[in-house]
Write a structure and sequence with these properties.
The chain is an alpha+beta fold. It has helices at 3-16, 45-61, 92-98, 100-103, and strands spanning 20-26, 36-42, 68-70, 77-81, 85-91, 108-111. The protein has a single domain (3-111), classed as Beta Polymerase, domain 2, CATH 3.30.460. The longest helix is centred in the middle third of the chain and has 17 residues, at 45-61.
């Protein structure tokens, strides 16, 4: 699966469960670790877990397994390493603390138009 297809699949999965403030960041010219980062917020620990698990389920349906995942137990944040795509799902205060968008400033960022912030 191409990295752009992975990005769209994950974004659609996050939108399915009403993730907030979805931002994709193209980091192809910034790092060799991944092509894209997708960052989204959940309103509670339950939603953060549900969002991450839904993304994993959508990839599993396509025969794609994650290289790794972190934070699924706590619900404050979750990281899904899909290889060419890193998916970060966080509660708002955790997202504000880590401020990944600022960390990767200069990289091309796109906000999902269909999900309200």
């Amino acid at each position: 699966m191409q990295s752009e297809q992975m990005l769209q699949l994950a974004q659609n999965a996050l939108e399915d469960l009403k993730a907030q403030n979805i931002v994709s960041i193209d980091v192809r010219d910034k790092t060799s670790v991944t092509d894209y980062m997708l960052i989204a917020s959940g309103t509670s620990s339950r939603q953060v877990k549900a969002l991450a698990e839904h993304v994993l389920e959508k990839f599993k349906e396509q025969g794609v397994r994650p290289l790794g995942s972190e934070g699924l137990d706590g619900g404050e944040w979750a990281l899904l390493d899909m290889g060419d795509l890193l998916v970060h799902v966080m509660q708002a205060q955790t997202r504000e603390f880590y401020d990944l968008e600022r960390l990767w400033q200069g990289a091309e960022q796109k906000r999902s138009a269909s999900v309200s912030e």
